[in-house]
Amino acid sequence: MICICVLGALLLLASLAANADEFSGRVVGVHDGDTLTLLTADQQHVKIRLAGIDAPEQDQPFGQKAKQALSALVFNQTVRVTVQAQDDYGRMVGTVYVGARNVNAALVEQGTVWVYRCYNRDPALPGLEAQAQAVERGLWALPESQRIPPWEWRHGEQEGVATKPASPRPTPSPRPAMVLTCGSKHTCQEMANCEEARFYLTQCGLKRLDRDGDRTPCEGICP
User: Fold this and answer.
1) Residue 81 exposed, middle or buried by CB count within 10 Å (0-12, 13-18, 19+)
2) How far apart are CA 116 and CA 137, in angstroms?
3) Which of 91, 154, 198, 211 is catalytic?
4) Which of 22, 57, 129, 136 is catalytic?
5) Per-residue model confidence as pLDDT tens digits over 23-74
């Protein structure tokens, strides 16, 4: 059943890519401040990662408000998506429009997301971010100690943030060391655990495990 579902998803994505770099549908789910799911006219669910931006994680300051901001703009709305790429998790990466409104840009203007400069292709976004920051709009009104870029938060650099415990992290229990070698594995689905995924990324050079370039491979299994 899993293989059939995966095959169906791959066929859907191939069909979308073959038909056009743009498609539309009704938003039926908002997962966080930069990811949503839409339902196409042929009743297919497609997960969309908004390009050029990175929203606060849901467990960091402003994470829930970022999700609410995206929901207010798109939920149950018919949107148009211009696709830039497909990531390693099967998500379409692109710009979302409600009518003529660029949702990616609107979120930056509202101060609910960061511009993801490593991947941003829209030259207008940094200026919109600077304006939001200048007037302390959205997350820019937070104390500086809480304004942690999400890509740093995901790497555990959030220690000392007020909403996190100040006590030291507990020392993990010893466990037998894994014997890892560069083998024939190529995808996240083949990795036994996060340790193996990190080994393949850093030691074997399997960069496809880190499509968003944040140095965390296989985010489905790595925190």
Assistant:
1) buried
2) 18
3) 91
4) 57
5) 999 999 999 999 999 999 999 999 999 999 999 999 999 999 999 999 999 9
91 annotated active-site: yes
130-187 pLDDT, tens digit per residue, is: 999 999 999 999 999 999 999 999 987 545 444 444 445 555 555 555 667 777 777 8
- Structure pTM? 0.63
Annotated active-site residue in 22, 26, 49, 190: 49
User: Is 49 among the catalytic positions?
Assistant: yes
Delimit the domains of the chain by residue range.
8-150, 180-223
8-150 carries CATH number 3.40.50.150: no
Count how many residues are written for the chain.
223
